[in-house]
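Reposting from the mailing list since nobody answered there.

I have sequence plus structure tokens for a pair of proteins and want to know whether others read the tokens the same way I do. The first protein:
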Amino acid sequence: MKYLFIWAFIIFSKLTLAQISDFKHIDFTKVDNIVKLHEGNELNNLPLLAHKLTSKLPTGVEKFRAIYLWVCLNINGDAYQHNKVSRKRKKFKNDSLGYIAWNEDFKKIAFKKLLKYKTIMCTGYAYLIKELCFIADIECEIIDGYARSFETNVEALKSINHSWNAVKLNNKWYLCDATWSSGYMINGSIFVKDYNNGYFLTDPILFAKNHYPLRQK
């Protein structure tokens, strides 16, 4: 357990992380209205979607807010994928290379399902945000690691179980977790859509209480 906290300390020390309070002077009303205007848009043309969400916004944080909020409100967690991956993690708990190989094949199927049905797991949320940010010229990374919730005890984990994003705005890095912002699972079988703004540009000290990066970036 100790090494997880060490890694968290290293990454937070190295990257000059900040939080949403840096942008308290910005009114996100226009951003949120743009997101509502494009509710239900399809994913078959990501450049067009990124343009619709960001082209009328003047700052990087507003553009990122539009991307992040749209993903959280329009993509649903997939209970089937969640349970399938959980079973495979247990099956491959002593074979990390086997799990990685299986996961690479599974991600191709998962992303096809994302495009068609707008359902995915945490890696898909993080991937979609990164792709839209790339198109909008916003520097964004996927962070793989361990997450602790009421269902999982990070001390007992043998393999990574979560992914989230780090985004660079005004030369500072910020943390966010679209999976946990979008809603939550009940008994691992029902996804409840319930947006939580607490995981948008979160205070890194609070974020580190339940997110543990696998490696230093």
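The second protein, same order (residues first, tokens after):
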Amino acid sequence: MVDHLFADARLAALYDDLCAGRADFAYYLPLVMSADSVLDVGCGTGELLRLARAAGHTGRLCGLDPAAGMLAQARRRSDVDWVHGDLASVSWRREFDLIVMTGHAFQVFVTDDELRSALRAIRAALTDDGRFAFETRNPAARAWERWTPGNAVEVTDASGAQVRVEHDVKEVDGDLVRFTQTYTSPGWSRPEVSWSTLRFLNGSALAAFLSEAHLRVAEQFGDWDRSPLAEACPEIITTAVPSPIR
């Protein structure tokens, strides 16, 4: 669910600093706290589940991520079940009251087959009255137009060195956006560069995929303040619930 570069522990250690001040945790944390058993798909460094434990969550918390470097960060807290893998490598059945995907991890499913497979696994892992909460960027807001080297960000790593991160969009093909992420630091022998592709589904396409997986939209918002979904809003924040399998 995360960029393959985050298999590198050095880069994974930068992730929380790169995402500092993120608004989505204020939205997701109350959902997590209200559920007895929670699965965080694409959990990354596990920050959301670590915050939940620190806030007093006493139930089952499970984080799933394919990047070993990310999970090395997450495992600094041992009272959460950290699983190395992805939805294709697990087979949970009606085990979770809440499944979340944060950080726009939902957008890494770039083909119809990948998305269908992931949603089937999520539907299977939910209890009958469970909830699936996630977000995807609203394509109408065209966020990728701001992913330019001129909007690079800088963070300081554990050694005190400055690390610069640039995004550069290479191709927009329908609802797919392909781009590079380049990490540089004065003390490094070379930059670290990755290629990524994200899918920007509109609301109607998203609803159709959910319905096919026997999930229905229970609520949607356009931003983290729970403002209504509108044409120019930056996000499509969705809570879906199981619908009957006939």
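Reply #1 (J.P.):
I read it the same way you do. Helices lie at 9-12, 15-18, 24-33, 47-54, 68-74, 112-125, 203-212.
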